[in-house]
């Protein structure tokens, strides 16, 4: 049984005071069941958000990391730095990093390796563009991203891996994938993992869905057997909205 995992990706939103307030509000509400919860604030607020969630159930993640350990990489942040401020997770290969910041699978693979080497749990994002879906290329795009992102890694090294399926056309658009569309791709991902790493491993990996997840669609999406949680952008910025999604996970998986 996989514990559902709901993570909030704040992206480039919030300021220190509003972020701390949001984190405190989330930390104050302990879920009435099995669900893992994390928030991923901007780098500069990681330490203060960590203080706000301190000994609660809420975990801390970052939105990105650089793959080198240290040195002359102006503007970058290392895995060790993220660990140092209390991060447990790191989002890698988010579509905004792929499509706006130009990250490719090779770079994302280096980041996955660095994160695992440092003891950070990677949330590897994959997802197709609308034109790729329309051209029936969804599975081949996902396969390329998985193959590239996980290249050179073994099942044993990937024990802490989380995958987030985020169709690019659903991110921030209000156009959520239907539960069936999500399930189809999640199942494809799990089958791919089975082929590559074996069934035991594939069954243990959590696959989150991301893309316009809201309080009113979360339960339906997560009630699908291969949808193990959500990576939430817009609806993670208000405590009430995010708490509804956590409740949706609990209702879906009970
Ligand atoms: P959204 O973003 O929930 O605002 O669509 C999800 C994500 O990009 O992780």
Helix and strand layout, with pairings?
Layout: E1 5-9, H1 16-27, E2 36-40, H2 46-53, E3 58-62, H3 79-84, E4 89-92, H4 95-99, H5 105-118, E5 121-126, H6 130-134, H7 138-149, E6 162-165, H8 179-197, H9 199-204, E7 206-210, H10 218-222, E8 229-232, H11 239-253
Parallel strand pairs: 1-2, 1-8, 2-3, 3-4, 4-5, 5-6, 6-7, 7-8
2-phosphoglycolic acid (PGA) binds next to strand 8.
How does this model look, in words?
The chain is an alpha/beta fold and 254 residues long. It has one domain (5-252): Alpha-Beta Barrel (TIM Barrel). Helix content is 42%, strand content 15%. The protein has eleven helices and eight strands. The protein has helices at 16-27, 46-53, 79-84, 95-99, 105-118, 130-134, 138-149, 179-197, 199-204, 218-222, 239-253; strands spanning 5-9, 36-40, 58-62, 89-92, 121-126, 162-165, 206-210, 229-232. An eight-stranded parallel barrel has the order 1-2-3-4-5-6-7-8, surrounded by six helices. Helix 10 (218-222) links the parallel strand 7 and strand 8. The N and C termini lie close together (11 Å). The model has no long low-confidence stretch (mean pLDDT 97). Residues 9, 166, 171-172, 210-213, 231-235 line the site of 2-phosphoglycolic acid (PGA).
State the order of secondary-structure elements, H for helix, E for strand.
Answer: EHEHEHEHHEHHEHHEHEH
- The Rg value, from CA coordinates, equals 17 Å
For the terminal residues, how far apart are their CA atoms? 11 Å
Unreliable parts = none
Question: Which hetero compounds are present in the coordinates?
Answer: 2-phosphoglycolic acid
CATH class: Alpha Beta
Number of helices: 11
**Strand adjacency order, main sheet:** 1-2-3-4-5-6-7-8
% residues in beta strands: 5-15%
């Amino acid at each position: 049984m996989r514990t559902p995992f709901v993570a909030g990706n704040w992206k480039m939103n919030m300021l220190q005071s509003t972020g701390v307030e949001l984190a405190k509000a989330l930390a104050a509400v302990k879920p009435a069941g099995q669900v893992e919860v994390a928030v991923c604030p901007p780098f500069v607020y990681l330490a203060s958000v960590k203080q706000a969630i301190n000994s609660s159930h809420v975990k801390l993640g970052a939105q990105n990391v650089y793959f080198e350990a240290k040195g002359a990489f102006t503007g970058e942040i290392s895995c060790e730095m993220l660990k140092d401020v209390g991060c447990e997770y790191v989002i890698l290969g988010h579509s905004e990093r792929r499509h706006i910041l130009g990250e490719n699978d090779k770079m994302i693979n280096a980041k996955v390796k660095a994160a695992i080497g440092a003891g950070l749990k990677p949330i590897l994002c994959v997802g197709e563009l609308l034109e790729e879906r329309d051209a029936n290329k969804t599975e081949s795009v996902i396969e390329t991203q998985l193959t590239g992102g996980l290249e050179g890694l073994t099942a044993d090294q990937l024990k802490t891996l989380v995958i987030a399926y985020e169709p690019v056309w659903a991110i921030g658009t209000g156009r959520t994938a239907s539960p069936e569309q999500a399930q189809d791709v999640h199942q494809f991902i799990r089958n791919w993992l089975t082929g590559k790493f074996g069934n035991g491993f594939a069954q243990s990996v959590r696959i989150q869905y991301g893309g316009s997840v809201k309080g009113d669609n979360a339960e339906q999406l997560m009630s699908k057997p291969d949808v193990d949680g959500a990576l939430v952008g817009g609806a993670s910025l208000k405590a009430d909205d995010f708490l509804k999604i956590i409740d949706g996970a609990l209702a879906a998986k009970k």
